[in-house]
Amino acid sequence: MSQKKVLFTIFGATGDLAKRKLYPSLFHLFQKGELHENFAVIGTARRPWSDDYYQEVVLDSIKDIDATIQEAKEFASHFYYQSHDVQDTQHYVNLKELGDKLQEKYQIKGNQVFYLAMAPQFFGMISKHLKSQGILTGQGFERVIIEKPFGTSFDTAAKLNDELQEVFPEQDIFRIDHYLGKEMIQNVSAIRFANQMFESLWNSNHIDNIQITFAESLGVEDRGGYYETSGALKDMVQNHILQVLSLLAMEPPTKFTEEDIRAEKIKALRAVRQYSLEEAKENFIRGQYTNGHLGNDTFVAYTDEPNIAPDSKVETFVAGKFFIDNFRWHGVPFYVRTGKRLTEKGTRINVVFKQTPYDMFGQGTSEKLQDNVLTIYIQPTEGFSLTLNGKEVGHNFAIEPLKLDYRHDAQFAGNSPEAYERLILDTLEGDATNFSHWKEVARSWELVDVIREAWDNDEQPVPKYEAGTMGPQEAFDLLEKSNRHWVWMPDRWYRERGLL
Ligand code: BG6
Q: Are residues 245 and 132 in the same domain?
């Protein structure tokens, strides 16, 4: 490990993301020695904070991390604040002055990372000024990390991308999808490509369907303003879900390198069937939560949450079916679903294998045998399990399902700083494997835009589901139409006990 030399400039430094994710992640890197003496952070935002106040905020954001006071203070002393109006050229002049001073003071050798943690409409303007005001000097590496959403449609994303690429070449643009930093998402490739047993079965001859579930128990919280412009489709499907789908569907890369992995992911996304409006309507359903309860907890309806229009038609749930038109996957549905205020927080992938051609133990049908399912648990627990069929112990010959289970608790539940830590380190090392390439983003928008349009043209009311359930009836019908069902049904436990 070599100590990194870098000046970070964080746009949106007073925001929630910076406090909850970035500062703790940078501190972990500091504790591990990845960042040591030769780094500095400029935080910028509109608010008129002083360096001292900013350092207090940084200290507060890392207070739960095990460290000595001296260590924490030493870390925070590398943080500087510059009040900044992104639209005002003079502020970039000040930013440059401060940047030059810190480069000198910390012997950074010109390396810079710009972290854009603010609304995307400013990205173009910021990058233009970074160039025109000479903040980019070409002396060291100059990379930009961009938070989602990357555009709101194909067209807006393309415009944004053009603006960025006028300043930064593709290899210096790091588009964050924090799911790609998660341990078990990275493990998908290990499970597939380090086990001949799975990879040899990983195709339409042996797999019946794949289910990707991103369930959240939280509601929209205080993000109503953003969520009203996004909805679950753009918030989760366009980015996280399609990224995971591409990792599951891609061909084995020749080498496990950024270039080869990206090429395969792009190919997989290109092979996802482009629906017509009619097909999109048939294969994708949406839902919105009403009030509900789970045990003793009661929840308000989406339309009663803060900053939500009382007649909002925004979806808080999506379920759908993608097909991948290539040799490997022809005819295998990839079911996806995500939603807020579902029964439980749980991100998991279920790979459902085909049944035996004939059930010699049953009545000549294979209905009584359980499906073999490989489940990859992303969070809150991490691990995987495989359901098989075996003989029930006893004199009679009866078949019962068995489960091989390997699981451990994720180090952090949810949207963990750990993922950010890994992704920031990747950026410093110039490794964009776990970031979204423009071609992936562009293709994802093409796939999602048509679903959005189909729904926008639809006069029907948005289907509703009670908070605490696993989505509207339409989500279940989607699979039942082809005699399938969702493998993961956490609501069942509550229903059986009359708690739902
Ligand atoms: C974000 C979405 O990208 O991912 C949020 O904007 C969502 O709406 C979050 O809650 C989920 O991430 P995680 O890591 O908590 O599963």
A: no
Structure tokens at 253: 């890369």
Between helix 258-271 and helix 438-456 the angle, nearest 10°, is: 20
How does residue 409 score in pLDDT terms, banded at 50, 70 and 90? low
- Answer whether residue 147 shows pLDDT above 60: yes
Question: Containing domain of residue 223, as a range?
Answer: 180-496
**Residues 6 or more apart in contact with residue 62 via CB below 8 angstroms:** 23, 24, 27, 72, 75
Q: Among 123, 147, 171, which residue terminates a domain?
A: 147
Residue 285 clears pLDDT 70, i.e. is over it: yes
Q: Give yes or no: residues 329 and 266 share one domain.
A: yes
Known active-site residue 240: yes
Rounded percentage of the chain residues whose pLDDT exceeds 90: 86
* H or E stretch at 418: helix 417-428
Clarify whether residues 84 and 213 are in a common domain.
Answer: no
CA 236 to ligand 1 centroid distance, Å: 7
Rounded-to-integer distance, Cα 321 and Cα 335, Å: 4
Inside any domain, residue 174: no
Region 373-384 average pLDDT: 94
Cis peptide before 463 (omega within 30 of 0): no
413: in domain: yes
**165 falls within a domain:** no
Tell me: do 261 and 321 sit in the same domain.
yes
108 backbone dihedrals φ, ψ, rounded to 5°: -90, -15
Ligand 1 in contact with 258 (CB < 6 A)? Answer: no
Q: Which of 118-127, 141-150, 345-354 has the lowest mean pLDDT?
A: 118-127
How many structural domains comprise the chain?
Answer: 2
The residue whose C-alpha atom lies closest to atom 12 belonging to ligand 1 is 415
Q: Is residue 316 part of a domain?
A: yes
What pLDDT is stored for residue 397 in this prediction?
84
State whether the beta carbon of 216 lies less than 6 angstroms from ligand 1: yes
Residue 177 Cβ < 6 Å to ligand 1: no
- Identify whether the C-beta of residue 381 lies closer than 8 Å to the C-beta of residue 347: no
Over the stretch 188-233, which tens digit does the pLDDT of each residue have?
999 999 999 999 999 999 999 999 999 999 999 889 999 999 999 9
CATH number at residue 458: 3.30.360.10
Together in a domain, 225 and 295: yes
On the question of pLDDT at 148 being above 90, the answer is: no
11 CA from centroid of ligand 1 (Å): 21
Quick check: 414 pLDDT over 50?
A: no
Which CATH number characterizes residue 21's domain?
3.40.50.720
